[in-house]
Amino acid sequence: MKKMKKIYNTILKMTAVIAVAFGLTACLEKLPGDYIPEEDAMKTLSDAEQTLTGIYTAYMSGALYSGYLTLCPDIQTDLVYAVQGNTNQYGTHWLWDIRSTNSEVEAVYAGLYRVIGRCNFYLDQVEELRSNLTDDVEIQYLDYYTGEVYCARALAYSELLKCYCKAYDPATAESELGVVLADSYFGEKPAKRASLKESYEFVIADLKKAQELLDEENDGFDAPYFTQAAAHAIHARLALYMQDWDTAIEHSTKLIDSDAFALASAKSYVTNTQTYLDYLWSNDTSYENIWRIGYTATSYGGAQGSVFLNFTTDYYYYYPDYVPAQWVLDLYGSGDGRYNAYFATLQTGYAHQLTWPLLIKYYGNESLMANLIYHVNMPKPLRLAEQYLIRAEAYCEKGSYNLASADLTALRESRYTSGGSISVNESNWLETISDERVRELYMEGFRLHDLKRWGKGFQRTPQSQTQSEGSSLKIEAGNPLFVWPIPNHEIVSPGSQIQPNESNR
Q1: Domain residue ranges of the chain, discontinuous segments joined by +
Q2: CATH classification number, 2-285+381-474, choose in 3.20.20.70, 1.10.238.10, 1.25.40.390, 3.30.720.10
Q3: What does the angle CA 75 – CA 80 – CA 84 come to, to the nearest 5 degrees?
Q4: Tens digit of pLDDT for each residue in 334-385?
Q5: Helix or strand (DSSP H, E) at 7
Q6: CA atoms 339, 345, 351, 352: torsion sign
Q7: pLDDT tens for residues 144-202?
Q8: Which of 153, 229, 240, 332 has the smallest C-beta neighbourhood within 10 Å, fewest atoms?
């Protein structure tokens, strides 16, 4: 099966530009151009593979990991400041003026349900196709494809839950609003939100199916397709958000103990000038990538590095819309290789000539830049580093501070040129975990959701040459806009029973 999977991976990379023309732009609403006639449904294994390719292609959208889904939650928080003279991209998120008609909020919602729609199209038909197959190898392939689809759907729903729902509290989850569980492509169902508890249970069920159908022997780093390891990574994250500490530890441990993955080192060099940690971001290749989205020069998503650099304005100066917050820069200690991998002090082309450490984490994939494609990196939504942070936090919640300290130290020692040891205790663990998640996961889309689930607010104070509006901002814990509004057109569409969030206005 492993050899077969390698062949399939090659085919997938070659056909990544082929998108199946279907999906959902809203929860349950199909556009004419998205509908697939029944006569064009999945009849062969090749049809199933093409449908799966369409799912992966949907994840390439600039509304998702290469754009809004990653950037907006972090820009909304205290991690960056808007520069004087910026283009106002993502300005409503920066100013906390997010409305139900916000284009980014709408695009993320639609993009995730488009993935779900394509998954449902596959799942509605897979059993009939399976019953018609007689070749054992083809059946094996189909089962593996099906595992990937369940994993893809689970990930999309997990992101909807992060963005459009309150943080999970086991005591109240049954009475809180979840998401619309669209579990079928064909037929119509009332557009109504399930409870938060039901929604999380649905995702967990998908992940368990994925884990059953996917084979551990196919786990490998830099996978552009969903593997059993990817399913475990999502499961660990979801369990952490559900306050299910033991389950979070169980699934993160499977990945940490796996021979398939290893943390990128800031001590060892891939080239004469780049460490393994540098290479993780300059070439998007690393032993710690559990799942990444495979881009090519002819098929790629959004340029997420543009708002931090905008080098292409004149190909001479940088014109960032956002620069790192000083408090973030101050978090990195001496010898922390992440600082040089993530930031570089560069002069901007603005009239005020701001010189500041700019974010170069998304400067651009070197092979794509060779084709004059700038500020585009392959998204890496699932990395081993996050699993160490998940397990460390879960250990802390259980009072196992020595075990948490060991995990944090292991992560930090891989990132430091020397040293990196750290310890946590009952009084400092949350602050320590919070800081380490900022250091490691900076601008990867976690900060807003972390603050929400920890019940924490934040405050911005002005720094050099930042836009005055929004630079002095205090957000209290529990602010309704920690939960994005449901797009207005979903609520007012005929027959909709979708309930709004408190943030809808």
Answers
A1: 2-285+381-474, 296-360
A2: 1.25.40.390
A3: 105
A4: 999 999 999 999 999 999 999 999 999 999 999 999 999 999 999 999 999 9
A5: helix 2-14
A6: positive
A7: 999 999 999 999 999 999 999 999 999 999 999 999 999 889 877 778 999 999 999 99
A8: 332
